[in-house]
Each structure stands twice: as structure tokens, then as C-alpha cells.
Amino acid sequence: MAPHTIGIIGLGKIAQDQHLPTIRANPDFKLLAVSSLRGLSTDDAKYTFTDYRKMLSGVPELEAVAICTPPQVRHRIARDALLAGKSVLLEKPPAATLSELADLEQLADKVGKTLFTTWHAQYNKGVDEAARALAGQTVKTLHVTWKEDVRRWHPGQQWIWQAGGFGIFDPGINAFSIVTRIMPQPVFISRADLKFPANRDAPIAAEVTLSTGQPGVDLTASLDWRQTGPQTWEIDVQTEAGSQLKLSDGGCRLEIDGRVVVDEKPAEYEGIYKRFDELLTEGRSAVDVAPFRLVADAFMVGRRLQVEPFEEASTTAGATKAA
Ligand code: NAP
């Protein structure tokens, strides 16, 4: 079967770190075009544009696009792509608002194209294994600790601090994408303390309380972008039957009752493109709104607390993780 022809819109950090090398290494895809506001290009792409609309109209053989821009502009671009007859892969968060995503889902259905919300953290092997281990169990406690250094992972990214940029929920939504995947019961946000730097429009940290709607269940998420030194992406779970699970390294490592069950390298973007190939081949969409809904709910019920201003004084080189 001929490879799927794909274009990338927005050649920022994630497009360069993950999408380009993953597409290059996957024979089921052929990168045909890129669109970059700054005019960046790549040798693998036959066509380069600065206006994505010209790419959509100018390359009729293009089957799909991966939208790797900030979330604030994703809906407009995804709409234009679907209306131009292209299937769409959405980087996370899939849109700026829930209603934008609902609109895209309906539109994809109407035009008969694939829409795919990617949640990269869900593709790490420990996440699958944790979901299997928790199936049919009752969870008693779940604690998310997602603490990283924003200067290291998001150097110079102004959009992330603007309204609609998600702030700490840009990485926090990855944790929620694991929680919604592994929890055997639905979860709800019951409280959130959102810590906004005095000079920013998005939170730098959040303390979130969740619930399953059942009494006696203790679920929390502690998210913070001010952590220097070792970085922490962990989820600890205890079941009513007494089993203890610890997911660490963003879902790459899983311990159950102190025994290491999985300890593997990230499989995120390989997993995303494998799934996208399946969806395109089968002509189906996969729209998972659950992690996005939790973030929206945290903003909806959250208390806004002001903390000290954030100044991006220094950056640390060597970013390799998909944040
Ligand atoms: P980034 O480095 O800031 O790249 C975003 C790119 O989108 C820009 O460089 C720009 O590229 C393009 N763009 C289009 N419209 C824009 C606008 N109005 N404002 C700013 N840029 C615009 O951000 P990123 O880290 O790649 O993140 C992009 C998306 O991927 C986010 O939703 C993020 O949550 C998600 N993501 C990021 C990571 C990560 O590790 N960084 C991991 C997983 C997912 P051109 O000039 O080339 O058009």
C-alpha cells in the first residue's frame, strides 16, 4: 500500500524533536509538505509554505496534516484542513476549548475524514500495563506528582503563558491523559488551587483534588513548573485490595508492589503514527476528550491564587523529553 502523504503545520519544538524524525522512520508515511510562519523548511519535504492555506489548496495529493502549533490557533487550522478534504492529527491539547473540539469532531464526521487527538503519554508501555492491572479493581488512592522546570522544557515559548496557553496544564494534561486511561472508574475534578504568577495569564502550578463520586477515595494531582534539579512525572495508585502501583518517567516505568514490571524507553510518537496509520487506513476518527475535559473543569472550579512573578532568566540546554 502506498504511504500516506502528510504535511506538518508549525515547525516548532515538537515538530522538530518528534514528528519529523518519526515520520522519516515510518515507511507508512511520506512527508510531502511543511508550512511554517517563520519560513522554516526541511529537506524531506517537497513543498514548503509560510501560509498553511496555500499548502491545503496547492498540494491536492496531500492526504493528512499534523497540526503542531500552539493550541490557541488549532481550531481554525483544523477546520480549514478538514474542509479542504484532509485528515487531521491534532497535537495535544487538541484545541483551545471543548466546544472547538466538539465542532471539529462533527465536521470530521460530516466530511468523512479522520480526526485524531493525540495523547502521547498514553503510548508508553507502563500505561497499558497499569490499565490492565487496574481493570476491575477499586482504586482507593491516586496521587499525581508532575513537577518540572519550565525554563528547561519551554524556553522562550510565550504562548504557553498567555490565556488559552494552559500554563502548567500543558504538561499536566499529559498526566491526566494517563489517569483517564488507567482509572477503572470515571474521575471528576472537585477542587483546584491555580497559582498564577502576578505577571502571567496562565498558572505556573496547581493543586488539584479529584473524585470518583464514591466516598473514601483520595485522588490528588500536584503540578508544578518551578522544579529545578531532578524532574518528577509520577503517579502512585493504591487499590482497595491492597495493591500498590507506581508509574514513573511519564509512564515508561511501572512498579507493582515494589516489583519492576516495565522499564522501557518512551514509545510515544512511534505509537501515535502507528495508530494514525491504522485510523487513516480504516477511515475512522479517534477523539478522546477525557483529559481535556478534566483540564477545562479544573479551570472552571479552580480558585485563582496569585504567586510571585515569573521571569524567564535562564534556560538549560538538552531538552529531549516530550513535555
Ligand atoms: P513551539 O516550539 O512554540 O512551536 C509552535 C510552532 O507553531 C511555532 O514555532 C510556529 O512555528 C507555529 N505557530 C503557528 N501559529 C503560531 C502562533 N500563533 N504562535 C506561535 N507559534 C505559532 O511549541 P511546541 O513545544 O512545539 O508545542 C506545540 C504544541 O505541541 C503544543 O500544543 C504543545 O503542548 C504540544 N507538545 C509539545 C511538546 C514539547 O515537548 N515541546 C510535547 C508534546 C506536545 P512556525 O513558525 O514554523 O509556523
Automatic annotation (TrEMBL):
Coiled coil stretches, renumbered: none
Domain Gfo/Idh/MocA-like oxidoreductase N-terminal: 6-116
Segments crossing the lipid bilayer: none
InterPro entries in the cross-refs: Gfo/Idh/MocA-like_OxRdtase_N, Gfo/Idh/MocA_oxidrdct_glycsds, NAD(P)-bd_dom_sf
Pfam families for the chain: GFO_IDH_MocA (PF01408)
SUPFAM superfamilies the record matches: NAD(P)-binding Rossmann-fold domains
PANTHER family linked to this entry: BCDNA.GH03377 (PTHR43818), DEHYDROGENASE (PTHR43818:SF7)
Protein name: Gfo/Idh/MocA family oxidoreductase
Protein source organism: Microvirga terricola
